[in-house]
From TrEMBL:
The lineage of its organism: Bacteria, Pseudomonadati, Nitrospirota, Nitrospiria, Nitrospirales. Residues 8-153 form the N-acetyltransferase domain. The keyword Transferase applies. InterPro entries: Acyl_CoA_acyltransferase, DOMON_domain, GNAT_dom. Transmembrane segments: none annotated. Keywords: Transferase. This is Putative N-acetyltransferase family protein. It comes from the Bacteria. CDD domains: NAT_SF. GO terms for molecular function: acyltransferase activity, transferring groups other than amino-acyl groups. Residues 108-153 form the DOMON domain.
């Protein structure tokens, strides 16, 4: 198989940050953007998050040994309500030329398995509101529960 998935670690921060910038360029406009310091800000954040291995996990999708996508998530315990133990998909990105082969879903399943091993009871994701994406999330068992509204100030 030419595609492979491996766990991300500190040595991958540049790769993860560059994918995050591409994700922001694709998903975030018009209200948000990576901005001129986005790469370095993301890298700094990743350097703080990745060492917390019991709560934060990332996976990298490679094609012939070259990174072509990533997924990053974390777990947390809600201070109230049920279900108590939650997981959040922070970022999920595959380069456009590597989409449509099922590898992105396989990448996401690896993260979801990691979440299940940690007894996560509900998995959440904040995603772009787009009919095609909504269908894709629904096909993986996700339901729309909230919509985020944004306004620049």
């Amino acid at each position: 198989m030419e595609y492979a998935i491996r766990s991300a670690d500190i040595s991958d921060v540049d790769t993860l940050a560059s994918f995050w910038v591409r994700l922001m360029e694709e998903e975030a406009p018009p209200l948000s953007e990576a901005g001129p310091t986005g790469f370095s800000d993301c890298k700094k954040s990743l350097l703080n998050m990745l060492p917390v291995k019991d709560r934060v996990h990332g996976e990298i999708l490679e094609y012939k040994g070259t990174p072509v996508g990533f997924v990053l998530g974390y777990t947390y315990e809600r201070p109230y309500g049920s279900p108590r133990f939650a997981g959040q998909i922070l970022h999920w990105y595959v380069l456009p030329e590597h989409r449509g082969h099922g590898e992105g879903r396989r990448l996401l399943r690896v993260l979801m398995d990691w979440m299940a091993e940690r007894k996560v009871q509900i998995l959440e994701v904040m995603a772009k509101d787009d009919p095609g994406r909504n269908i894709a999330w629904a096909s993986m068992g996700f339901s729309v529960t909230l919509k985020m509204h944004g306004k620049k100030l």
